[in-house]
Amino acid sequence: MDFGQFLTLDFWNGLVRCHFTEVLAVLTAAIVVVLERYVRRAVNKQTHSLHAAVRFLVFLLFCTIGYAALTLGVAWLLKTGYALSKGAYAAPGILVLLLIVAWEAQRQRQM
User: Fold this and answer.
1) What Rg value do the Cα atoms of the chain yield, rounded?
2) Four-residue CA torsion sign, 35, 36, 37, 42
3) 65 contacts 14 by C-beta, under 8 angstroms
4) pLDDT over 60 (residue 111)
5) I want to staple 66 with a disulfide (CB 3.0 to 4.6 A). Which of 12, 18, 62, 107 is the partner?
6) DSSP characters over 74-94
7) CB of 75 within 8 A of CB of 28?
8) CA distance 10 to 80
9) Are 58 and 43 in contact, with CB atoms under 8 Å apart?
10) Cα gap 74→38, rounded to integer Å
11) CA–CA separation, 109 vs 98, rounded Å?
12) pLDDT tens across 32-77, in order?
């Protein structure tokens, strides 16, 4: 193995391909954590005028159903995007996504 092999896209895509499930879980969790702030704000805007008991029920439903749906949706989008690109640019794409998520988390002071 020579140094030139480390510079090829096939080498890095091979590393991502064999750990795709773990990378998908990390990206999904990170994206859901970053999106949670925006989703919670939107739900609060819609329910701020309701009674406290109704807001509590909305909160419970959102925690049980909403986050699961958000997680499944993000995972599906990531998996579909990977399948559509045939994994050709998986490593650079994952790196860009991780940088965007890290930048947004830093902006929200979550990191």
Assistant:
1) 18
2) positive
3) no
4) no
5) 62
6) HHHHHHHHHHHTTTTTHHHHH
7) yes
8) 20
9) yes
10) 15
11) 16
12) 888 888 888 998 999 999 999 999 999 899 888 988 898 999 999 8
